[in-house]
């Protein structure tokens, strides 16, 4: 960039104005309301064997799933908390409600959803988005999916899109075949927690050769105080198929922290393409700890498009195992951390076959006292000759008290490969602001335009409607209207 913000220190008034424009403390979060809902069931606070068995029993699950949960619980209890990454000492596992059922029945039309819950999704614009540009929608409220629909033409092509609980009941053999094959419960402590108490999420199955050209969407809403949301998503794309899945997230503001721990598994068979897009906008009282991983077989493509603009703490590193020749992976990760937020994000790619290719492109914007960290892992195994990968991470600092860190790791066990890594740290330049203000923008508008331009590699990967929504969220963040 041009002259850095440090130059503005010679003009105290200029520096003060820039700080006021870009670093005000959040005062309002647009999705921070909560609804007074009469839940049909809420588990006691804390986690034990009785709670896990109760969840499995209420869902009438098969014996193998019940045992899977109990094995995962044992592993969770035995494994220590991660000592790297963000500070998780504030997570109080004994204060969380691990299963909250908002209603007895899932709606197939919005009219079948209880009014107090439907009103939430009306405010969030989900029914309108479904009518305009989505092929199917699952809406989850606390622990259960309260609404689901999919276009008839997709069902006629054999596409399965349903909530995970229904998937287990209605397609038990298909689910069992792929369940926990990408992320076993022993993968990490948080994945073990999800495996023990999972509820909701999505199951997507795309038959060979079928292209789902209109996105599918799931929307996850935490409403209850001190709530845990533990959705489990499994997407299987058979040979030569295509699917784009989008998820969004919000939660109310409470004095007690909530916990969101998801597990997402993607299986891209030969020649298949899966695009998975996330725009996260959690409130500042949510710990967001997510494990996402994919397997890409021969000539398959997996793209993680991951946007993080909210939460108290986020730890999320989408990964791809390239197991077949000529498989491809793309990870585009952006994070925006304001005061009171820690965004610890990035991506992991494992090249385990020849002629595979990948890119990791990470962007972070920090302001106020926010903290952002990029963690990237690139592993080239022996035998993955003629593989190519590029890792790039860029950080934009808007205020003196924010922080950005980069932790790239590259491990190469093969000689015939092409690897690149770039990293930049920038501040908004005085010349940039002068140029934009000379075109009639206010200082706050100028800073926002710089941020939008910086985020462009991410926003260009989104469908138009979601790119507009991303720009709106950035604007609200910059206006200190969103936490």
Short description:
The protein has helices spanning 12-22, 49-58, 63-78, 115-124, 126-133, 152-156, 164-170, 172-178, 189-197, 430-438, 443-454, 456-459, 464-478; strands spanning 41-42, 100-101, 136-141, 144-150, 160-163, 202-206, 216-221, 228-229, 232-237, 242-250, 258-260, 263-268, 273-280, 286-296, 301-308, 313-316, 319-322, 328-337, 342-351, 357-366, 371-380, 387-397, 403-412, 417-427. The protein has 483 residues and is α/β, with parallel strands linked by helices. It has a domain at 31-316.
Provide an overview of this structure:
There is one protein chain. The chain has helices spanning about 10-20, 50-60, 65-80, 115-125, 125-135, 150-155, 165-170, 170-180, 190-195, 430-440, 445-455, 455-460, 465-480; strands at about 40, 100, 135-140, 145-150, 160-165, 200-205, 215-220, 230, 230-235, 240-250, 260, 265-270, 275-280, 285-295, 300-310, 315, 320, 330-335, 340-350, 355-365, 370-380, 385-395, 405-410, 415-425. The strands form three sheets. Strands 5, 6, 8, 9, 11, 12, 14, 16, 17, 19, 21 and 23 form a twelve-stranded mixed β-sheet that branches. Strands 4-3-7-10-13-15-18-20-22-24 form a ten-stranded mixed β-sheet. A two-stranded antiparallel sheet has the order 1-2. Helix 2 runs antiparallel to helix 3. The chain is an alpha/beta fold. It is globular and about 65 Å long. The chain has a domain at about 30-315. It contains 13 helices and 24 strands.
């Amino acid at each position: 960039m041009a002259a850095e913000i440090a130059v503005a220190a010679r003009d105290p008034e200029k520096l003060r104005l820039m700080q006021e424009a870009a670093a005000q403390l959040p005062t309002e979060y647009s999705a921070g309301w909560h609804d007074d809902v009469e839940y049909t069931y809420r588990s006691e606070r804390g986690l034990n064997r009785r709670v896990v068995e109760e969840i499995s029993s209420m869902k009438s699950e098969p014996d193998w799933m019940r045992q899977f949960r109990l094995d995962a619980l044992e592993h969770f209890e035995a494994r220590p908390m991660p000592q790297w990454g963000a500070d998780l000492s504030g997570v109080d596992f004994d204060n969380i409600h691990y299963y909250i059922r908002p209603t007895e029945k899932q709606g197939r039309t919005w009219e079948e959803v209880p009014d107090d819950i439907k009103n939430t999704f009306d405010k969030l614009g989900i029914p309108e988005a479904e009518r305009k540009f989505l092929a199917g929608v699952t809406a989850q409220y606390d622990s259960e999916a309260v609404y689901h629909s999919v276009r008839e033409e997709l069902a006629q092509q054999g596409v399965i899109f349903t909530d995970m609980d229904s998937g287990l009941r209605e397609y038990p053999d298909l689910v069992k075949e792929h369940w926990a094959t990408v992320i076993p419960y022993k993968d990490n402590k948080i994945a073990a927690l999800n495996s023990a108490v999972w509820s909701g999420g999505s199951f997507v199955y795309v038959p060979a050769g079928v292209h789902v050209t209109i996105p599918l969407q799931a929307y996850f809403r935490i409403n209850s105080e001190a709530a845990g949301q533990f959705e489990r998503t499994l997407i299987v794309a058979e040979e030569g198929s295509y699917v784009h899945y989008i998820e969004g997230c919000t939660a109310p503001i409470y004095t007690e922290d909530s916990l969101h721990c998801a597990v997402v598994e993607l299986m891209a068979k030969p020649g298949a393409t899966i695009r998975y897009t996330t725009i996260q906008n959690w409130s500042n009282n949510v710990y967001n700890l997510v494990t996402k991983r994919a397997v890409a077989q021969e000539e398959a493509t997996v793209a993680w498009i991951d946007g993080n603009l909210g939460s108290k703490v986020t730890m999320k590193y989408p990964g791809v195992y390239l197991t077949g020749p000529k498989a491809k992976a793309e990870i585009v990760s952006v994070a925006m951390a304001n005061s009171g937020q820690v965004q610890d994000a990035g991506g992991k790619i494992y090249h385990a076959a020849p002629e595979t290719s990948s890119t990791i492109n990470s962007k972070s914007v920090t302001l106020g006292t926010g903290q952002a960290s990029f963690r990237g892992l690139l592993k080239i195994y022996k035998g993955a000759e003629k593989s190519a990968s590029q890792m790039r991470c860029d950080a934009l600092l808007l205020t003196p008290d924010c922080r950005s860190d980069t932790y790239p790791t590259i491990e190469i066990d093969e000689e015939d490969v092409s690897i690149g890594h770039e990293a930049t740290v920038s501040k908004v330049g005085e010349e940039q602001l002068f140029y934009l203000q000379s075109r009639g923008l206010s200082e706050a508008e100028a800073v926002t335009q710089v941020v939008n331009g910086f985020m462009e590699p991410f926003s260009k990967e989104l469908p138009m409607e979601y790119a507009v929504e991303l720009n709106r969220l950035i604007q609200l963040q910059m206006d200190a209207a969103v936490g």
